[in-house]
Amino acid sequence: MKSNQSIINLLLASTVIYTTTQKNKSKHMLYANPNFRANPPSRSETPTSPMLTPSPNPTNVTSSEMATTINNTMNITPSTNETEMMDSETLPDRSQLLQALYAADSASNMNPTSTGPFTLPPLEYDFDALEPYIDERTLRIHHQKLHKAYVDNLNAALSRHPEFYGATLDQLLIFPDRLPSDIQTQVTNNAGGHYNHSLMWKVMDPSTKSRPTGEFAKAVSTQFGSFENLKRNLKTAGESVFGSGYAYLALNPYGRLIIVTTSNEATPVPLRTIPLLPIDMWEHAYYLKHQDRRSDYIDDYFNVINWERVGARYEAASQVLTPPPQ
Ligand SMILES: [Fe+2]
Question: Ligand 1 centre and the CA of 147: distance in Å?
Fold first, then answer.
């Protein structure tokens, strides 16, 4: 237990870097940068679908079990700045995480209460609206074909157990172990693809020259030193993605900003974090315009980020998450 505790401590230390392999073989890399403390939780939840009814399945994960799973599967580059103790027993349960995810998704206009069969969400701007940073052809293919394929494949999997059409996308992400085993992988992969892209369209904006404001700006300043440092760290994370995946700005279980990378279409949700801002590092996101110049692609992407909307996600989720023990 002591060694587990020590490892968890590293999750919240400055510039922690770790990799972990989840049960679905998705790799994550995390750069944590602590200090911010969120407001106390304010919501409760009533089960409304099969996804919220805990099953007798032994893979159903509790907070402490999740922490143990993470401990047992990750490789850690030790930090020289361990700043905070983190007790696995205080990790938010998944119902609380769901409420935080709902709050964040509502704040970014994602309609999180909708259930299956799922539909491709329309863009809030034209396909050429992100020019010259994101080209029209890439955006059109990305949305109309690639994102649509994730939606179609998700619905196809759920059609084999239509009672799970009653679940929201967020529920599918948080409670994958409550899905029938024969569709678990297909649903998890495609729900991730649907979520990652749905969020990305919402945090892009053709006319934005925005910067973090309010509580989000304070958190960025406290935890990263400056907005420019945050972008620098995100860019480094994006460039480090091996193969296809994402760099993510996210909110950890204790309400602190972190940067995490995921493989394929995994989201940061299995790490009990709230996704705030994805950077799609699949070649399909940039190759037509930027070819192998990933660095230029990320620079261009930063020119179309709606940081006010990212901040709205941060503030909404922060209201729900549990602060760390005093
Ligand atoms: Fe993509």
Answer: 7
Gap from CA of 19 to ligand 1 centroid (Å): 22
Domains of the chain: 1-326 (3.55.40.20)
pLDDT in tens, 155-197: 999 999 999 999 999 999 999 999 999 999 999 999 999 999 9
4 CA to middle of ligand 1, Å?
35
Measured CA to CA, the distance from residue 34 to residue 17 in angstroms comes to: 13
Structural contact between residues 190 and 147, judged by C-beta atoms closer than 8 angstroms? no
CA of 42 from ligand 1 middle (Å) equals 34
Query: Judging by DSSP bridges, how do beta strands 245-251 and 74-77 pair with one another?
Result: unpaired
Residue 269 Cα to ligand 1 middle (Å): 18
Residues with CB under 5 A from ligand 1 (ion): 280, 282, 285
Contact 316, 215 (CB under 8 A): no
CA of 279 to the centre of ligand 1 (A): 9
Expressed in angstroms and rounded, the spacing between residue 245 Cα and the centre of ligand 1 is 9
List helix spans (H) across 12-93: 63-73
- pTM of the predicted model as reported, rounded to 2 decimal places: 0.78
Query: CA nearest 88: which of 6, 171, 178?
Result: 6
Gap from CA of 204 to ligand 1 centroid (Å): 13
| Residue 79 burial (CB count, 10 A) | 18
> Over the stretch 215-267, which tens digit does the pLDDT of each residue have?
999 999 999 999 999 999 999 999 999 999 999 999 998 889 999 999 999 99
Give the pLDDT confidence of 77-129 residue by residue, as tens digits. Answer: 222 222 233 445 566 789 999 999 999 999 999 999 999 999 999 999 999 99
